[in-house]
Amino acid sequence: MDDDNSIDPLSGDSTWTLPGDYSFFGITDTRDNNILSEFGWNFHPPAPVLDRMDSGGSCGVPEEINPTTSPVPVHSQAGSVENVRDVSISNPLVSTSSSEDRPESSAASGDAASGGQPPSSDTGGKVKKKGPKRIRQQRFAFMTKSEIDHLEDGYRWRKYGQKAVKNSPFPRSYYRCTNSKCTVKKRVERSSTDPTTVITTYEGQHCHHTVGIISRFSFRSSRVAWGYCAYNYAQLTIYIKVTDGRLGLHSKLSTKDSSILGITKVRTFDGDALTKKVKVFSLLNCLFILFFQLSDH
DNA sequence: CGGTTTTGACCAGCGC
DNA sequence: GCGCTGGTCAAAACCG
């Protein structure tokens, strides 16, 4: 996995491109591409990007971007390279405003605001300490077709904020992992251009296991279902329950050590009148993305 | 009662 | 410098 050309040094593009060899995604025909593009996932022509995914950030410790292990560095608007590992599957997910460059805990005044209460007008007593710049941890963003905003990913999250998004009727929610030693955060917002799409952005990596095996998928009338799950397990077991009125299937997949980028499990099997095609992607060392298509007969 | 969500305010960064 | 925006805080409300 130590790809010599793991980074496109010329890429000032904030769009994260998927690894060069797309065969491991099983995207080998135009039909697949059509399906993906239908969801706004455009797989660019092969471009060498990340290969090693074993950098494994630790809890609360911002990871240094290592050019040999990192994907495309994302350039901020100011032109500086940020410590971001955005996996934007060709989408506007890679917003890299650097407004979060401040220390986590010292960021806020002690008693900043109490909902509904008028602020103590004099800011004298609530001066925020200006600590060292917060180093942004690696981020990973992707989109999911879902009616549910907050998709279950096996971890427990605590919502700590919600903001209205400019030019969007949908708010953005901010979550933090409930594990006290874990500093992973995620943002969830619904696409303003496609309200059926949820944009989820993770920042950081969990240093603990999931609390349960849960993954939720959305289904569309077109019989294309997809979703995601994020696990820290080397061994990933996914339960997929497919119900579409006529048929109810309950299948179990088990992938072994798919944490190594480049390994893709593609299984095709028939069940009753359905053909299920399952693809497991491993984009980061702890993240799996599932895409599976249902088709008649 | 403890954990989670809601929500208004605060702050930093950025563009103009 | 000012205004806008994103991100976060934290008290209050809510919930099981």
UniProtKB/TrEMBL annotation:
<feature type="domain" description="WRKY">
    <location>
        <begin position="146"/>
        <end position="211"/>
    </location>
</feature>
<dbReference type="GO" id="GO:0043565">
    <property type="term" value="F:sequence-specific DNA binding"/>
</dbReference>
<keyword id="KW-0539">Nucleus</keyword>
<feature type="compositionally biased region" description="Basic residues">
    <location>
        <begin position="126"/>
        <end position="135"/>
    </location>
</feature>
<dbReference type="Pfam" id="PF03106">
    <property type="entry name" value="WRKY"/>
</dbReference>
<keyword id="KW-0805">Transcription regulation</keyword>
<feature type="region of interest" description="Disordered">
    <location>
        <begin position="53"/>
        <end position="135"/>
    </location>
</feature>
<dbReference type="GO" id="GO:0003700">
    <property type="term" value="F:DNA-binding transcription factor activity"/>
</dbReference>
<keyword id="KW-0804">Transcription</keyword>
<dbReference type="InterPro" id="IPR003657">
    <property type="entry name" value="WRKY_dom"/>
</dbReference>
<dbReference type="InterPro" id="IPR036576">
    <property type="entry name" value="WRKY_dom_sf"/>
</dbReference>
<keyword id="KW-0238">DNA-binding</keyword>
<dbReference type="InterPro" id="IPR044810">
    <property type="entry name" value="WRKY_plant"/>
</dbReference>
<protein>
    <recommendedName>
        <fullName>WRKY domain-containing protein</fullName>
    </recommendedName>
</protein>
<feature type="compositionally biased region" description="Low complexity">
    <location>
        <begin position="105"/>
        <end position="121"/>
    </location>
</feature>
<dbReference type="GO" id="GO:0005634">
    <property type="term" value="C:nucleus"/>
</dbReference>
